[in-house]
């Protein structure tokens, strides 16, 4: 038996097994759609109020209250806020890194099993069409084996084969609808998370800028290291001019030193 005959024997199985495959995939698709719908419905939260409250608390330097406000919420936006506020005292960069990590983990949870819905929606019609082709091949094979039946046998076989295409479309359409609807929901939740992320980051960077501008002013207001304290606390010699001998006396003294030097160098002069 050559390869063509083996493949022909496989096609003679008909489209029934394809129908069972499509039914099995449709059950999985429905289960995923229900599970994702319940999950997304449980994530409803007033993110706008949360973002506004966190912005006000952070601008007032009330970090403890801001963490308590984030702990009071159960949404994914609050989860990202908690991750950033936990690192807020280390600076804006540390808080941003923590929030980006939390967003990556949340995205994986949001998009879980959505790829299956998209793949099934794209490929279920082709699976049904494959079953239809198998059914048509079987119908022509039956016609060749029983020529007395005529065209009626072919029409009956083709009508049964087209059922696979119909079932494939029936499985694909709900999968595509759920996939698009849930993708839109994921984008909405992600935009809410980004909004909270930007609010926290902007408040922390504003705080960091305020501190960096205040430090040079504080240093400029401090007295020099040698004159700190009140005037009465300074040493008695501070600020006074050094008392030196009058200039004529210094010159006479220097001349005397020169004379003595020549005496020593010349073996004594005049004496």
Summarize the structure.
Helix content is 77%, strand content 0%. The chain has 271 residues and is mostly helical.
Largest sheet: none
Q: Which class of secondary structure composition applies to the elements?
A: mainly alpha
Strand content: under 5%
Helix/strand order, N-terminal first: HHHHHHHHH
Oligomer: single chain
Note poorly predicted spans.
233-245, 257-271
Protein model, in words:
With 271 residues, the chain is mostly helical. It has 2 domains: 3-210, no CATH class; 236-265. It is 77% helix and 0% strand. It contains 9 helices and no strands. The protein starts with a helix and ends in a 6-residue tail after the last helix. Mean pLDDT is 76; it is low at 233-245 and 257-271.
Descriptive terms for the model:
single chain, 271 residues, mainly alpha, 2 domains, 77% helix, disordered C terminus
Please outline the helices and strands.
Blueprint: H1 3-11, H2 16-41, H3 47-59, H4 63-71, H5 76-86, H6 92-110, H7 114-145, H8 151-221, H9 247-265
Helix pairs in contact: 2-7, 2-8, 3-4, 3-8, 4-5, 5-6, 5-8, 6-8, 7-8
């Amino acid at each position: 038996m050559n390869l063509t005959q083996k493949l022909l024997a496989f096609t003679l199985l008909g489209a029934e097994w394809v129908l069972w495959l499509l039914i099995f995939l449709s059950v999985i698709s429905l289960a995923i759609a229900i599970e994702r719908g319940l999950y997304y419905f449980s994530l409803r939260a007033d993110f706008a109020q949360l973002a506004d409250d966190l912005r006000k608390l952070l601008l007032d330097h009330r970090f403890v209250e801001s963490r308590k406000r984030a702990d009071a919420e159960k949404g994914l936006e609050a989860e990202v806020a908690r991750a950033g506020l936990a690192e807020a005292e280390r600076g804006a960069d540390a808080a941003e890194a923590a929030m980006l990590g939390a967003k990556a983990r949340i995205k994986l949870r949001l998009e879980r099993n959505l790829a299956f819905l998209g793949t099934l929606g794209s490929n279920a019609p082709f699976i049904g069409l494959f079953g239809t082709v198998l059914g048509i091949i079987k119908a022509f094979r039956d016609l060749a084996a029983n020529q007395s039946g005529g065209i009626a046998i072919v029409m009956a076989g083709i009508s049964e084969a087209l059922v696979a295409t119909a079932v494939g479309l029936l499985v694909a359409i709900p999968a595509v609808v759920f996939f698009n609807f849930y993708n839109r929901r994921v984008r909405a939740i992600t935009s809410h998370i980004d909004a909270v992320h930007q609010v926290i980051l902007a408040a922390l960077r504003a705080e960091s800028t305020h501190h960096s501008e205040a430090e040079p002013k504080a240093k400029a207001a401090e007295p020099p290291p040698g004159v700190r304290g009140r005037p009465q606390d300074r040493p008695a010699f501070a600020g006074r001019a050094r008392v030196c001998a009058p200039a004529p006396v210094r010159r006479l003294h220097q001349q005397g030193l020169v004379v003595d030097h020549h005496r020593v160098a010349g073996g004594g002069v005049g004496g």
